[in-house]
């Protein structure tokens, strides 16, 4: 857990200096109390309740009792492992796409935009002002069957390739994995661009000049100077994209089909429609554990090897 | 400058602008389709131009009610989260205390957790306590997940603050309350404002956590979600477009004011 806290998700903070001791020994605790109590009761305690719910048996009518029925976990996993795998695959694809799409734009804003910088920044953030559900629904129009986008992809034989890969079906994009990944990429792209921009903007332009003076070609400068220095942004950007994308069910529901259901869809329908609380709680708990493990491993790896 | 160099420079610009277009295309579609006159229940296909929805934005039953509810919840959640978060941020930056690592984890984890996990676990708490789902459970949830973001925003600002300013105020015989109100708070204000804005935006647009903990209460995102199953009225595009235009206008105005102020100072 401590490794997770070492890498804040937003702009990587400088090391905190230990604050000076002040008068009033109880003041910090009084300041912390209301907020921390809120988080303890409505964030930490629910995790305990969820764990307890996942090992209960019973029915809605007769009520649930904790019976330590751990088999729920096994049953949930064996029934819904495809959705788990799909969630990780879709989220990982969306994260890679976000990085590929977001890096040039972050680079453009940081180094090439000049007086357009503020305007482009506003345009990156502006979509947030319209409800993301409405914007996600707009993708139904963009990717509509027989629409210009699908038509162009078809004419360029892109759809043949994606169909062969199993990302699309026939001449449709909507209700396929490609549409879901496209929606996920779209929805979480700003979360990639902003941390990338923050770390790119901090790079001293003289480093670029120095690399140039030492006869590095632009591609070498990028590989040896710019990209390594932007790693903190890459790490927080990928985390900020991957984590919410894994748990998302909105894109899979609005743009996908029953064959693209992710684990979030299962948790949602088990909780709100099927009302099978133990299974839903078990799935949610597994998702939480899986994310924490993946994130911890990722931060360890990117913190020790890739960052050097 | 060689040709390859030139091309490379253009390549970044072209790729960046492509991404910008990808980001903005849905907003264009939302705006254009707010002038549509759809034939069926769904507003996904262009039929013909009409300003009917703009002339009657509340014409769909439940839409404006849900909008008002979302605004109310967002305001209260912003107030709560900003208050609690600012106190935490000040404690973190200004004081030493025990269990600092644990406190930091507790603040960080809600931002590192998929929303659906927080939503589901909070629902199990409410179910086990027998709470009635509705306005209050939504508000509780929103304050919970906005809090951490406020802490981050305020902390960044307070940390960059020069502590000597407060010492100077005290040297000039300002009491602790006066120092806080006339020196500390004005300097921290931009951070607090940023945190509050973030909290408002997060709360207003939240769907997943609300979906789990709302019961039969319908916020604006819940209304949009429901309409995606039953039929999308053009009015949701009108609301979406209006929100976008108002927000961008506000940002531009505040930037213009800021620029002018800076110029006057210079």
UniProtKB/TrEMBL annotation, chain A:
Record's keyword terms, sorted: Cell membrane, Membrane, Transmembrane, Transmembrane helix, Transport
Keyword presence, Transport: yes
Gene Ontology process terms (BP): transmembrane transport
Name of the protein described by the UniProt record: ABC transporter permease
TM spans (from-to): 29-49, 88-111, 118-138, 174-197, 225-245, 280-299
Residues in ABC transmembrane type-1 domain copies: 84-298
An annotated GO cellular component: plasma membrane
Region (Disordered): 1-21
Principal location class: membrane
Family stated for the protein in its record: Belongs to the binding-protein-dependent transport system permease family. CysTW subfamily.
Mode of membrane association: Multi-pass membrane protein
Highest taxon above the source species: Bacteria
InterPro entries in the record: MetI-like, MetI-like_sf
Entries under Gene3D superfamilies matching the protein: MetI-like (1.10.3720.10)
Cellular compartment(s): Cell membrane
Pfam families (alphabetical): BPD_transp_1
Keyword Transmembrane helix applies: yes
UniProtKB/TrEMBL annotation, chain B:
Highest taxon of source: Bacteria
UniProt keyword list: Cell membrane, Membrane, Transmembrane, Transmembrane helix, Transport
Main location class: membrane
Family: Belongs to the binding-protein-dependent transport system permease family. CysTW subfamily.
Membrane topology term: Multi-pass membrane protein
UniProt signal peptide: none
Gene3D superfamilies the UniProt entry points to: MetI-like
PROSITE patterns: ABC_TM1
InterPro entries: Bact_Polyamine_Transport (IPR051789), MetI-like (IPR000515), MetI-like_sf (IPR035906)
One GO CC term, this protein: plasma membrane
Transmembrane spans: 12-35, 73-93, 105-127, 133-154, 183-204, 234-257
Source organism (scientific name): Streptomyces calvus
Domain ABC transmembrane type-1: 67-257
Pfam families to which the protein is assigned, alphabetical: BPD_transp_1
Localization per record: Cell membrane
Name of the protein: Spermidine/putrescine transport system permease protein
One BP term from GO: transmembrane transport
């Amino acid at each position: 857990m401590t490794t997770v806290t070492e890498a804040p998700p937003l702009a990587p903070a400088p090391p905190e200096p230990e604050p000076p001791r002040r008068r009033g020994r109880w003041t910090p605790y009084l300041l912390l109390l209301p907020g921390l109590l809120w988080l303890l009761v409505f964030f930490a305690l629910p995790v305990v309740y969820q764990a307890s719910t996942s090992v209960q048996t019973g029915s809605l009518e007769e009520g649930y009792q904790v019976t330590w029925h751990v088999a729920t976990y096994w049953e949930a996993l064996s029934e819904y492992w495809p959705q788990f795998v799909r969630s990780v695959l879709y989220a990982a694809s969306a994260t890679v796409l976000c990085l590929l799409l977001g890096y040039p734009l972050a680079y453009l804003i940081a180094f090439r935009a000049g007086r357009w910088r503020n305007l482009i920044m506003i345009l990156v953030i502006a979509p947030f002002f319209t409800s993301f559900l409405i914007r996600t629904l707009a993708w139904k129009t963009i990717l509509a069957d027989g629409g210009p986008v699908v038509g162009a992809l078809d004419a360029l034989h892109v759809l043949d390739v994606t169909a062969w890969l199993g990302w699309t079906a026939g001449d449709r994009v909507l209700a396929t994995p490609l549409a879901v990944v496209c929606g996920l990429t779209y929805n979480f792209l700003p979360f990639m661009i902003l941390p990338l921009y923050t770390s790119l903007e901090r790079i001293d332009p003289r480093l670029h000049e120095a690399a140039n003076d030492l006869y590095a070609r632009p591609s070498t400068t990028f590989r040896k100077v710019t990209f390594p220095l932007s790693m903190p942004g890459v790490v927080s950007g990928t985390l900020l994209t991957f984590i919410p994308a894994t748990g998302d069910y909105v894109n899979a529901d609005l743009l996908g089909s029953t064959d693209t259901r992710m684990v979030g869809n299962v948790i949602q329908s088990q909780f709100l429609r099927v009302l099978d609380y133990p299974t839903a709680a078990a799935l949610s708990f597994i998702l939480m554990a899986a994310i924490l493990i993946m994130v911890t491993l990722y931060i360890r790896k990117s913190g020790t090897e890739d960052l050097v | 400058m060689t040709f390859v160099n030139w091309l490379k420079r253009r390549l970044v610009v072209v790729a960046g602008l492509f991404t910008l277009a990808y980001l903005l295309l849905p907003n264009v579609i939302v705006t254009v389709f707010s002038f549509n006159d759809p034939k069926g229940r769904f507003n996904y296909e262009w039929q013909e131009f009409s300003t009917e929805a703009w002339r009657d934005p509340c014409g769909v039953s439940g839409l404006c009610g849900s909008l008002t509810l979302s605004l109310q919840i967002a305001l209260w959640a912003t107030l709560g989260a900003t208050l609690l978060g600012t106190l935490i941020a000040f404690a973190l930056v200004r004081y030493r205390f025990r269990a600092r690592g644990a406190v930091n984890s507790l603040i960080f984890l809600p931002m590192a957790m998929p929303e659906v996990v927080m939503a589901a676990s909070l629902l199990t708490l409410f179910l086990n306590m027998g709470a009635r789902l509705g306005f209050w459970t939504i508000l509780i949830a929103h304050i919970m997940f906005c809090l951490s973001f406020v802490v981050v925003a305020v902390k960044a600002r307070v940390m960059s603050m020069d502590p000597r300013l407060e010492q100077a105020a005290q040297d000039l015989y300002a009491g602790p309350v006066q120092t806080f109100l006339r020196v500390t708070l004005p300097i921290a204000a931009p951070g607090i404002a940023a945190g509050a804005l973030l909290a408002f935006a997060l709360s207003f647009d939240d769907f997943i956590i609300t979906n789990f903990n709302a019961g039969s209460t319908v916020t604006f995102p819940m209304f949009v979600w429901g309409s995606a199953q039953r039929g999308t009225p053009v009015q949701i595009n009108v609301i979406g477009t209006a929100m976008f235009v108002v927000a961008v206008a506000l940002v531009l105005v505040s930037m213009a004011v800021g620029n002018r102020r800076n110029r006057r100072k210079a």
